[in-house]
Design a protein that fits this description.
This protein is of the alpha/beta class. The protein is built from twelve helices and nine strands. The protein has an eight-stranded mixed β-barrel. This is Histidine kinase.
């Protein structure tokens, strides 16, 4: 269409398109080699039990240290990895690496900590996914009950019935499931009841305003009581300050995660947290 509009608009349009697709292509090519070149690594962010104050789990968060682009944010490359299907091998690497790190916790006497791993839609839908999880658990000696897979409402809603079947197959391996970014996707409460999940993670979008905005506070309180009435552990994401924490405690939230406690850390720094 830009062509028909005449020369000027064509010229204005074209360079921007080229730049964007070039960048995309370069990133895609680079991402292809990232695994082989050992440029991927995991950071770990602690989850804190609000009753005891202890670290009870860590969420593994993927980082890509590209030699020229520095640290590329997962928000930028996970969608690309999804699009290209690269998320399948990358996701398996994440799972294996997280389980291998857990072995180091067990050696250090911290084998009670749970490891939380994000799963993407494409990975979850992959026919081999359940077998991959099973194999990684066996090969790494990971106690299944200490592994929690984070899934989102949006990816489950694609095909609810087959998602539920798949979730049950995962539960049969002994792993646990958490619903990540809760409240931002669309799902109905009827489905929530059918999902064999253990945990709800309230998206930080809602947590951000709880100390100032009565609507946010009311929403978070509602999610907490919803979770508790379904016997789910409730985790608040994005806890950035004392005021957030104070409201969440008053509301009876179980577990919290956020910059107030710690940013995601490289493994040695995480180990030094103690907890
Ligand atoms: P998520 O699973 O919801 O992870 C939480 C994100 O919130 C992380 O961003 C974390 O650094 C950030 N965060 C934690 N506390 C705070 C806080 O107090 N304030 C603010 N503003 N942010 C906070 P990150 O590491 O950039 O990851 C972004 C998203 O990328 C993740 O959201 C997840 O959806 C995806 N992701 C990360 N690692 C993986 C992975 O290994 N596999 C897959 N499939 N997705 C991943
Ligand atoms: Mg997550
Ligand atoms: Mg989240
Ligand atoms: Mg997310």
């Amino acid at each position: 269409r830009a062509k028909d509009d005449g020369r000027n608009s064509y010229q204005l349009y074209q360079p921007a398109m080229n730049a964007r697709s070039l960048e995309h292509l370069a990133l895609e090519t680079a991402l292809h080699g990232a695994l082989k070149r050992d440029e991927l690594l995991l950071h770990f962010q602690p989850l804190i039990d609000l009753q005891s104050g202890a670290i009870v789990a860590a969420e593994a968060l993927l980082r890509w240290c590209h030699p020229e682009l520095d640290l590329v944010s997962p928000a930028d490359f996970i969608p690309l990895a999804e699009e290209t299907g690269l998320i399948v091998p990358i996701g398996e690497w994440v799972l294996r690496n997280a389980c291998e790190h857990h072995r180091a916790w067990r050696k250090a006497g911290r084998g009670d900590l749970r490891m939380m791993v994000n799963i993407s839609a494409r990975q979850f839908r992959d026919d081999a996914f359940v077998e991959v999880v099973d194999r990684v658990l066996k090969e790494t000696g990971m106690p299944p009950e200490l592994l929690t897979l984070e899934v989102t409402e949006t990816m489950l809603m694609d095909d609810v019935d087959s998602s539920i079947v798949r979730m049950h197959r995962l539960r049969a391996l002994g792993v646990r499931l958490a619903l990540d970014d809760f409240g931002t996707g669309y799902s109905s409460l009827a489905y929530l009841k059918r999902f064999p999940i253990e945990e709800l993670k309230i998206d930080r979008l809602f947590v951000r305003g709880i100390d100032r905005n009565t609507r946010d506070a009311a929403l978070v309180a509602a999610i907490i009581s919803l979770g508790q009435s379904l016997d789910l552990r409730v985790v608040a994401e994005g806890v950035e300050n004392k005021d957030h924490l104070k409201v969440l405690r008053e509301q009876g939230c179980d577990v919290a995660q956020g910059f107030h406690f710690s940013v995601p850390l490289a493994w040695p720094a995480f180990m030094a947290l103690g907890g």
